[in-house]
Amino acid sequence: NVTHTWKLFRYRKTQCEERGVIQRECAAIRAQFRQADNGGRSHNLAKLLYVHMLGYPAHFGQMECVRMIASPRYSEKRVGYLGAMMLLDEKQDASLLITNSIKNDLSHSNQYVQSLALCTLACMGSAEMCRDLAPEIDRLLRASNSYIKKKLVSQLPFPTILYGYRHLSPGVLHGAVVLIIELCERNPETLERFRKVLPDLVQIMKGLVLSGYSPEHDVAGISDPFLQVRILRLLRILGHNNEGASDAMNDLLAQVATNTDSTKTVGNAVLYETVLTVLDIKSESGLRVLAVNILGRFLLNNDRNIRYIAMTSLQKIVGTDHNAVQRHRGTIVDCLKDQDASVKRRALELSLALVSASNVRSMMKELLLFLSSCPAELKAHAASGIFNAAERYAPSQRWHIDTILHVLTTAGGDVRDETVPNLIQLITNASELHCYTVHKLYRALLTDISQQSLVQVACWCIGEYGDLLLRGECQETEAVQVTEDDVLDALETVLQSHMSSPTRITDNVDRIRSIVSIYGSCIDVELQQRAVEYNALFKKYDHMRAAVLERMPVIEKNSPGHTNGESAGEAIKDIQPAKIKQGEPLLPPQPANQVHYIDTDKDGVTLTLSCEKQSDTGLTVTLTASNSTDSDISSFTLQAAVPKSVQLHMKAPSGDSLPARGTAKVTQVVVLNNPNKVGLTHTHTNIHTHAHMVRSIRSVTHPSFISSFIYL
Fold this sequence. Notes:
Helix content is about 55%, strand content about 10%. It is built from 30 helices and 12 strands. The N and C termini lie far apart (about 90 Å).
């Protein structure tokens, strides 16, 4: 028997032993099947089904299933039908052999035999089999046996299922509603047909809501909650995007919402389905407010699962019913303190969605408090949401800067990469707050250098606005006397922690040079590169240092996470860079080896860029300069800068002087390697004149990395 077979498997030690047991048992079962008179047929087939469940072949038992279905014994019929449902399907020829047996059993006097036939037909019946047996099914539907009708409406997809509504047996109704839901979800064309029974559904639901105590179907004081939930789900499907159907159920939904006990879990299940239905159909505004208020009560429930589903539902409707959800803002914010991580995450998402211009200060206070104590896995999400809300609803630039600095101080290691350039762009544009910001960042730098993003912004601001810091006069914050040595001490501490680079200080040049030279052989390639570049500025190109390290211009934001700027301001008013048209691609996609020419002409000096694509990532740029004026130009130098991810190699120029009237030209070849295929456009490029007619191409895509420029 099956118990014996199970014991054999229980004591097996290896898979090889298991296969051996299977082979011996299957051989014995085959031998038993071949015997004409076998009293253990049902036991043998049961053992074979167990073998099938273990994943071994059992197809040789199909014909035995057919023979046992035709048996007059109920015990054999039961195992035979079970075997047919497991071993047969509509694609196998053997399934056709049981059609006549199913037809005979549908007319059997025993309702349990009829039930076996119905279950098997629903499980494996083909379209042809169902067509042949449709008269028998229709006859059973019209019979008075409620047990059989329940089996029918829960198993078989026949249009005559609507007949079940005339019989108020809860089991029949439940099976009918389940089937109609399935039909409507799989075939939207049936929606109009079933909307005709909407009045019947409404009446049945009203009877359940307003009926008295029914011991047979009552659960914790709620009359047949399972049927109520199914009907509400069907109403939601029928009323979706249909105004007429929605109007027909509005009053019913209001009755359910006001008459259902919310102190029991069963009642909350019915109320939750009611809320989902109200929010998914074209319901009245008052009814939607009632649904939101029910979700608000759910937020106060001790069951964390109920609180979770309430916030999930509120999150879905906060865009369409914002004011109604705002009434529960206090309760939602309190859920940020919940001990459950899932509830806390939902509360964070919903709180961020509730931030508006009218409540941004109070909501941000709560969110910043949450950020300081939230789990590590939520810090990045919380910081990103606070940044977005602050950018959208900031009441002032100072408040905006303070909020972002607070986040960087609290969770600087969890913010996104674009945070640093975005904050720098914000600070640059707030010129009246430069003194306040650099003082605040300097104090933050002295307090903590573990937050990398904060350190990057602080070092950049000190580098750009260090003179305001040394001046010690700031109306918007407490004045602090800072010396150049103090600033250098702070930056040297940062350098030793591999965080950033030197700053804008004019007097202690020798100390700066000494600090920079230390890192010329640093194992950190980034620091080594910056040190070599600055050493070049201090030595060979010292005459250009002041111009190169001028204060960055105001940065114009093109798109989130990307900024660019143009050389402007008092220091270069007399220069006025010759700009190439904004947005014109510098390196448009072209076939390999195709040459492009870009000319810029200013004050009689013409610079031509000839670009030739060598490969998908390689590009050769030939720079050619000529002088059309009447005077010779000496000490002429070409300079170029590219984004960090692009490798630049400038070969030796053909000379350093430009004769008058274009009698000779200076050429220089630049080789670019762009492994990440970063797009280069003219929006990143300015070309302007300087001392000795120097031409420089300066990228300001990442203002915090000015030291990455290559000067030859």
